[in-house]
Amino acid sequence: MNVLNENSNIISEKIERWNCFIEDICNRDIDTLNRTQKNAVLCFYYDSEINSGGHSEYFDSYPETNSEELYQAILEISNKKIANNYKKAVAYGELDDYIQTDDAYYEFEPSLCDFLEKYIEQHKDKIFE
User: Fold this and answer.
1) Would you say residue 8 has pLDDT above 90?
2) Burial class (CB in 10 A: 0-12, 13-18, 19+), 75
3) pLDDT in tens, 55-85
4) What is the number of other CB atoms lying within 10 angstroms of the CB of residue 93?
5) Between the chain's N and C termini, which has fewer beta carbons within 10 Å?
6) Maximum CA pair distance of the chain?
7) Calpha distance 104→91 (Å, rounded)
8) Are 115 and 123 in contact (CB under 8 A)?
9) How many whole angstroms separate alpha carbon 97 and alpha carbon 30?
10) What are residue 91's phi and psi, to 5 degrees?
11) How far apart are CA 67 and CA 87, in angstroms?
12) How many angstroms separate the Cα of 78 from the Cα of each of 6, 19, 82, 107, 115?
């Protein structure tokens, strides 16, 4: 029973950190964030927009994003497959209305969000400073 309570507390703490990240860190002016926070926020907004409307929605919502900066953030937080899919969307996505890159994104396992959750836990000291 004690182990069950301990696991429940750990899960609650992770959920609380995730909610704090979304409600606090993601709502700060991006220019005030440290590099670790900024990488996480860039990836969070990218993932959120892709999951709600695809790359077209992302590019419409965040036209000012530095593509190389986001590419590096995705690469640091997740893996080369996800980062390269983003690069492909930037370079060629409009040719097929982002169908290939959106479909590829939805197939990634683990997802960028899965990687992001892990990244936040691994870097919680820098994320929540």
Assistant:
1) no
2) middle
3) 999 999 999 999 999 999 999 999 999 999 9
4) 22
5) N
6) 57
7) 15
8) no
9) 29
10) -80, -40
11) 8
12) 29, 20, 7, 14, 5
